[in-house]
Amino acid sequence: MPELPEVETTCRGLRPHLEGARVATAIVRQRLLRRPVPHQLPQRVAGTTVRGVSRRGKYLLIDFGHGNLIVHLGMSGRLWLVDAATPPQTHDHFDLVLASGSAVRLRDPRRFGLVLWHSGDPLTHALLRDIGPEPFGPDFDGAWLYGETRSRSGAVKNALMDSHLVAGVGNIYANEALFRAGINPKTPARRIGLARYQRLAEKIRETLSLAIDAGGSSLRDYVNSSGEAGYFQDRFMVYDRADQPCFSCGTPIRALRQGQRSTFYCPRCQR
Ligand SMILES: [Zn+2]
């Protein structure tokens, strides 16, 4: 499932091809994603020029000046550059066709993704305005995590996956960051002290940076926008490693369910 590193990788991969590019049209083959793709989208983008490409949390923002395309990859989406003449496959629901003859194509088998239009500042959109601080931004640190968790009795791992606390961290990187920080994922968030949160904040950034550097992770069929498979999955310390030996101490990695999601941790290294 795409998390911050995959969206950042997509953003960085598409940016040089999109910024300043003229748009020919948009093709909507399947409107029924998590929310319907707006009917007027092709008319809104045809003949315009892309001003910029950015990311907020797990949302990709394509700026047209008079509005933004807000794209979310959902559970299984990917967005990459193709020759516009490439025949679409079954799950290729959306193309942003450039005058150059290329197209940005969205493939999303499970259709939990989003392609929305928002006039004006995209950060004011209902889906984006309440997202917490970016992990690499100035507002995110151990003091923030500590302050925001004083009344949270739930497990720290579930807190990390709450986008109000920190943007873009999902199940995979919550597992990985907690391992690197030596924190048991079941620990109640409010029981963790400032020093441990400072270490956790540092490890969240470290984990995400490594994944971005590696070109995003590939769980099923993620391919970055230049068409190469991501490879950070080869470096997971705990994620999807149930019963395999911990790389640090050799203890078998444990798996459990927390809030409908899979948790993996080392019972010896993570206290
Ligand atoms: Zn261990």
Protein model, in words:
The chain is of the alpha+beta class and 271 residues long. The chain contains six helices and ten strands, in the order αβαβββββββααααββ. It is elongated and about 60 Å long. Bound molecules: zinc ion. Zinc ion binds at residues 246, 248-249, 251, 266, 268-269. Residues 246, 248-249, 251, 266, 268-269 line the site of zinc ion.
Number of β-strand runs: 10
Number of helices: 6
Strand neighbour order, sheet with most strands: 1-6-7-5
Strand content: 15-25%
The main sheet comes to: 4 strands, antiparallel
Bound heterogens, unique:
zinc ion
- List low-pLDDT spans: 217-224
Alpha-carbon distance between the termini?
A: 27 Å
The general outline is: elongated
Rg result = 19 Å
Structural class: alpha+beta
Roughly what percent helix? 10-25%
Overall pLDDT confidence: 92
Strand/helix succession: HEHEEEEEEEHHHHEE
Topology:
Blueprint: H1 4-18, E1 23-28, H2 41-45, E2 52-56, E3 59-63, E4 68-72, E5 78-83, E6 92-98, E7 102-107, E8 114-118, H3 142-148, H4 156-160, H5 171-181, H6 194-213, E9 254-258, E10 261-265
Antiparallel strand pairs: 1-6, 2-3, 3-4, 4-8, 5-7, 6-7, 9-10
Zinc ion is lined by residues 246, 248-249, 251, 266, 268-269.
